[in-house]
Design goal:
Blueprint lengths: L2 E3 L1 E3 L2 E3 L6 E6 L4 E7 L3 H18 L4 H17 L1 H12 L3 H19 L1 H4 L4 E6 L2 E9 L2 E5 L7 H12 L3 E5 L6 H13 L6 E3 L4 H9 L5 E5 L2 H13 L3 E5 L4 E5 L5 H13 L9 E7 L3 H12 L20 H16 L3 E4 L18 E4 L6 H4 L6 E7 L2 H10 L2 E2 L1 E5 L3 H10 L4 E4 L15 E2 L2 E2 L6 H7 L1 E9 L17
Parallel strand pairs: 1-5, 8-9, 8-11, 9-10, 11-12, 13-14, 13-19, 14-17, 16-17, 19-20
Antiparallel strand pairs: 2-3, 4-5, 6-7, 7-23, 12-22, 15-16, 18-21
The protein binds nicotinamide-adenine-dinucleotide (NAD).
The site of nicotinamide-adenine-dinucleotide has 28 residues, from helix 8 and helix 9.
């Protein structure tokens, strides 16, 4: 019998009232390993009502109680990290070590959230007037929702809910329907950690569940991570229905290699960041900009490394890269490789015919490397989200920066150089939210905030860190007088402090 992946309501698994289901695949074998429930609008309504009731009580939990639950959750998540990684690998396909890395980066956000009492401290001004003090506090919003993509089924939800819950909100997660298994394990850990029922819920589903959350009057804020067209839809719809919204979109991350760079270091970085997780990372490097005259030398070094990559089932040790998430996605990426060839780019490494022994039906695509890509080609313009690295040649630093800044995305970018002055100039001039200097995937630590610019982010706050705390709380300023008034009687003038 196929396993059923359900919702999480009131601290328990719940099938919902809808009978709609979607298959969940094991990408390495191509088999259907489970079915996931797809919520109806009525199901979403029940989940949000439960979360609403829980939010009222949770906002009254003391900071001490909240942090005790967070510390317990951190310990459980740390202890069960391998179980969680195995679930991720079995539904996403990324190699086990990479799945463990994703859980570790998510754990860092839980650790940040354990310090929430410090992050929530307000300001206090004593004696702004005679016997009058002013102080500011930040309070939770109520029910907040998180809608997440397939590529980080644990880490991206973990960017959101530890901070939201620590701030005193109830959180409703709508994970990707392609690899929803991690969400239920996370829900069980919350229960075990002592979080009251209803403060963390999971609603499985597709566009119907998303739209129901966006329209629901009981949802105060929406955090979204996914592709740019859906991010735009989420941002516009949630804003229209009066919600606070942050919607992170797609990416096309460039890595600029200056002529003075350490080319072995740059080639290692390009291959790690280009093909790790089969290129299905929002911070993957998809374009290398080789500044003259390093192009030929750099491409040769990248090629040498790409040809040695081991592609097979991510559960097997010493595997570099696993399959893509679904056959549909693999076919789309392969179609883009075909388009690159048709548009005249040089396909230096062709992974289209890869066969993996013993796994004939897995969703395989070997690493592909293109050289002499130009900005008018589809493989440059579209987000590929697969194991395809494109090298663009640029005549100068200025031309490279112009190319990057003309791109409609602005998530991450990297510069490889030995010149500190060039690096300083680059960080000032480049238009992206996260910049790496000799670091190919500059994902900020949990105590900074994660987010891009331009079409990589709709909204004005990034995720986790201080901006996450700001997003999941609203400000209040209290002006108080604790003394007997010297004079009595009304005064209709505008209050002025003396
Ligand atoms: P996606 O946009 O297809 O799906 C994201 C979420 O939106 C899922 O929960 C999905 O169920 C829902 N969704 C899909 N279609 C919808 C529709 N028509 N209406 C309403 N909701 C819908 O993204 P994906 O394929 O799961 O993930 C890959 C994308 O996510 C890539 O574009 C990648 O760059 C992006 N991403 C961005 C970041 C970032 O930090 N900017 C991080 C991770 C992934």
């Amino acid at each position: 019998m196929t396993a059923l992946i359900e919702h999480w309501l009131d601290g328990k698994r719940w099938q919902g009232t809808s009978t709609r289901r979607a298959p969940v695949f094991d990408p390495a074998t191509g088999e259907t390993s489970a079915e996931v429930c797809l919520a109806s609008t009525a199901d979403v309504d029940l989940v949000v009502s439960s979360a609403g009731a829980a939010a009222g009580e949770w906002r009254q939990a003391s900071l001490t109680r909240r942090t005790q639950v967070l510390f317990a959750f951190r310990e459980l998540l740390h202890r069960r990290r391998r179980d969680l990684a195995e679930v991720i690998t079995s539904q996403h396909g990324k190699v086990l070590a990479d799945a463990l890395g994703e859980v570790t980066r998510g754990l860092e956000v839980v650790e940040f959230a354990c310090g929430i009492p410090h992050a929530l401290k307000g300001a206090y001004s004593e004696g702004v007037s005679s016997d009058v003090d002013v102080y500011s506090i930040r309070q939770p919003l109520g029910v907040v929702a998180g809608i997440t993509p397939f590529n980080f089924p644990a880490m991206v939800p973990l960017w959101m809910f530890p901070v939201a819950i620590a701030c005193g909100n109830a959180f409703v997660l709508k994970p990707s329907e392609r690899d929803p298994g991690a969400s239920l394990l996370l829900a069980e850990l919350w229960s075990e950690a002592g979080l009251p029922d209803g403060v963390f819920s999971v609603v499985q589903g597709d566009a119907e569940a998303v739209d129901a959350l966006l329209e629901h009057p009981g949802v105060e804020a929406v955090s979204f991570v996914g592709s740019t067209p859906i991010a735009r839809h989420v941002y516009e719809t949630a804003a229209r229905t009066g919600k606070r919204v942050q919607a992170l979109g797609g990416a096309k991350n460039h890595m600029v290699v200056l002529p003075d760079a350490d080319l072995d270091q740059a080639a290692d970085a390009a291959v790690s960041a280009g093909y790790g997780s089969a290129g299905e990372r929002c911070m993957a490097i998809s374009v290398v900009v080789a500044v003259d005259p390093v192009g030929d030398d750099l491409v040769q070094r990248v090629r040498d490394r790409v040809e040695r990559l081991v592609v097979r089932d991510g559960r097997e040790p010493d595997t570099d890269m696993g399959p893509l998430v679904t056959a549909t996605h693999r076919d789309r990426v392969r179609g883009l490789v075909d388009a690159g060839v048709a548009d005249g780019a040089h396909l230096v490494v062709d992974g289209r015919d890869l066969q993996v022994p013993g796994r004939p039906d897995g969703f395989w695509l070997g690493p592909c490397l293109f050289d002499h890509v130009t900005a008018d080609m589809r493989i440059y313009d579209e987000e590929i989200f697969g194991p395809v690295l494109c090298v663009v040649r640029a005549a100068s630093y200025a031309e490279a920066v112009e190319l990057v800044n003309a791109n409609r995305y602005g998530n991450g970018v990297a510069l490889f150089t030995r010149d500190g002055g060039a690096a300083r100039r680059f960080q000032f001039e480049i238009e992206a939210g996260m910049v790496g200097v000799n670091v190919p995937i500059p994902v900020p630590m949990a105590y900074y905030s994660f987010g891009g610019w331009n079409d990589s982010l709709f909204g004005d706050t990034h995720m986790h860190g201080p901006e996450g705390v700001h997003f999941y709380t609203r400000g209040k300023v209290v002006t108080s007088r604790w003394a007997d008034p010297e004079t009595r009687g009304p005064n209709l003038g505008f209050p002025v402090h003396r």
